[in-house]
Amino acid sequence: MKLVDQYIVRQLIGPFLFFLLIFAGILWLNQALKIVDVVIENGQPGMVFVELSAYLLPRVVESVFPVAAFAAAVFLTNRLYSESEYAALKAAGQTPMQFARPFIIFGIICFVSVSALAHFITPISNNAFQKRQHEIRQEFLSQLIKEGSFVSPKKGVTFYFGKVQDTGLLEDVLIREISADGRQTIHSAPSGRIVDKADAAKLVLITGTLQQFNPDNRLLNVVQFDSLSYDLSQFAKNLGPREQSAAETITPNLPWWISTASQNDQFDAIDAQSRLVKALFSLLMPLLGAAVLFSGNFSRVGFFYRISFAILLLFSLNTLRGATENFVIKSPSFSFVLYSPLALSFIIIATLIVITTKGWNSFTLSDIFKKRQVST
């Protein structure tokens, strides 16, 4: 790698990390807010929120990687223009292809990084995320035992625990049950303890009272006990076995060819190839961002319009990538359409590099019309 290439690649790293941190932080915050409901509803501690949020990071970084690479290329190219470094490179004989070389190198780095994320790291983290969520939803005991709160795991049943000691001792326990015919049963005890076995979970009440009220004869029966075992396994959530989706499976374990895959496996094959498209998209984005800016002549008023055009171009290509994926899902026989955003990106980059020496101002409609008149 030449000295100039090393310099530009090193200068790209700083803006890239900055944009990656900003974009990933915004997207991660949006995703993490959805986890709060899961944690609160299931009575989980704050560390569970941190754990689940960490599982989201690979997916978030993978999503914003191409955008951060594109933004870094636009930022650096604009700075090279404003600080006359690009003019110095041109004066030294640097050709457009030579100037594009460090952005290609940086694109290869992005391609390798996104490939590792999309094919391996993100599916593994997605699997861990969904598995942990499944476990949390089945941890019914943590939902029942909430200090100082009335909890109704199902209609007609209410639990109350005044205090939960660190040793596991429960104080001021109250259980109220109302049957369909209006009969009420109240278990109360000054203390109790959870006995969680492999086959069942029980709440052992110590020195308490059992009260039963019959609305038909309006009689109240009161029974005092030294200890009483209350079955809690009836409130367990039987979610059944969890099925692993394609998003949770590494690419080598997915079918690849969409056309030859069975109808059930076609969606998995589309997901596998979409990961490759995303990685190749990251390869082209740094060069595309730079090509939009250095394709024109120097402008004293800055490059606001070119930067705006670059952002619009990125948004359009990203939208097209999502649209083609949805199209292929509905029409798997046209799987080649999945790569059309890459082909369009490559054509745009090649066109911009070709016209770099002439600039955008040389390709106005009036100039083209004048050239046709001269030729005729």
Protein architecture, described:
By secondary structure, this protein is an alpha+beta fold. It has 9 helices and 6 strands; from the N terminus they run αααααββββββαααα. The chain has helices at 3-41, 46-82, 85-91, 96-138, 140-144, 266-294, 304-330, 340-354, 365-375; strands at residues 150-154, 157-164, 169-178, 184-196, 201-214, 219-231. A 6-stranded antiparallel beta sheet has the order 1-2-3-4-5-6. Strand 5 (201-214) and strand 6 (219-231) form a beta hairpin. The two termini are 49 Å apart.
SSE topology string: HHHHHEEEEEEHHHH
What are the low-pLDDT stretches, counting only 5+ consecutive residues below 50?
none
Write down the oligomeric state. Answer: single chain
Rg (C-alpha, Å) = 32 Å
Compile the SSE list and pairings.
Elements: H1 3-41, H2 46-82, H3 85-91, H4 96-138, H5 140-144, E1 150-154, E2 157-164, E3 169-178, E4 184-196, E5 201-214, E6 219-231, H6 266-294, H7 304-330, H8 340-354, H9 365-375
Helix pairs in contact: 1-2, 1-4, 2-4, 2-6, 2-7, 4-6, 6-7, 6-8, 7-8
List keywords for this structure.
six-stranded antiparallel β-sheet; elongated; 57% helix; alpha+beta; 376 residues
Short description:
The protein has helices at residues 3-41, 46-82, 85-91, 96-138, 140-144, 266-294, 304-330, 340-354, 365-375, and strands spanning 150-154, 157-164, 169-178, 184-196, 201-214, 219-231. With 376 residues, the chain is of the alpha+beta class.
